[in-house]
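ok so I'm stuck.
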Amino acid sequence: MFYLIFAAFLIRLIGLNQSLWLDEATTARVVQQFDYRQIVSVFSPHDFHPPFYYLFMKFWTGLFGFGEVSLRFPSIIASLVTGWLIYKVVLRSIKSVRSVKSTAVWAAAFFLFNPLVVYYSQEARMYSFATLFITIIFYYLSHITDYVLRIKGTGSRIKSGMTVVLMGNLFIFLSLVTFYGTVFFVVALYLYLLIKKEYRTLTYLLPGALVAGLLLYPLFLVQLKNSGEVLAQLPNWSLTLGKANLKNLLLIPIKFTSGRISFEPKAIYYLVSGLWVAIIGYFLLISNFKVQISNKFQNLKSQLLYFLLAPIALGFLVSFYKPLLQYFRFIYVLPFFAMLLCINTQKQWQRSALLTGFIAFSLIYTHIPSFHREDWKSMVKSLPSGTVCALPSSFDPIHYYNPKIVTSDLRSCNTGNRLVVVPYAQEIYGVDHAGLLAKQKYSLDKEVSFRGLKYELWSKK
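replied:
not stuck anymore, here's the structure
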């Protein structure tokens, strides 16, 4: 297991110093500009996430600095610990199965080398943390089921039982104050316990969500109000949030199996990724009904399948009201995906073939720069002198890579005979910058492109 985690660590080092993209730069700028109190009181009301991740990163960057590698390293650690926990969950849950240790290692490998996991383990955002916390909750769930009847006992049994319950609540709390999207797992968990009539376990696990809800409710109301105002002002913004439609739903299995890579022609990309989804889907779902196993083992498989699908189903339903159906918001179900896939593949060649596919997609991402994040680093370094005209949402990566650059809102930018324009995200804002500048008698002289980005030079006629 050590060698597996070490190999997973090495693959995460490849391209780790690639440019921060927009949201990562926001993470960096927040922890640079605000103290702990201001993160909660000044920044968070205008953000769309709970504050815990930023508070942690404030502490982390105070020790290790604000470089790309430092900012991303906590996500690497979280993903590796998640892989180790998957190993422990499988090892504990299927003791009756032959070669249980081998099965547990394969389950961890399916997670650690999943191309989407590799991608987000290199991102300075909260998604790897959320995945870790959800996996810990699942790890303690089985312990709680074992200990819940012993809490009436005495001595060490009471102590062990209460410790397990406390840890379960702690990580329910941490998951919710880290990423709102984990609420779909928490609700699915409570529904599961209701369906199974495990009322005492449900009662023991309620405090974590209740405390998180009480603490977050005032902030969440402000964020909800502000997000509604943003949607009203920027109707195109909803296109990036993830409406409840077939396309966004189908992207979830595609990205869960082949990661963030995409290429032209799209027909070939969808054919390749679709075939890979079909292969994975066969072993994940169809073969589930062909393998003859014990009742205890079957119960574990049913549990994993439920926690893989239920949060996504709940998110899909909510997205009819509030759009949020984006695959990366459900990355925390990938541990269940990995464990279920491993349990359903009983033959060595099957596991080897699937893991080889995951590693291949991961290596394609890590070794081909065109699949990396937007290259703000190179673009900012090459910007000509002068005021940079951009939309306010683009200021963070520009200032991260060069704090001395003066920026101005693209919608009202008129700083002389020559303009440097970064037209990033103008579609979301519904801004036709070319039309605006043409009305002011500017003409486009030059366009310089980078990965996912460009800047333009405009001058007065």
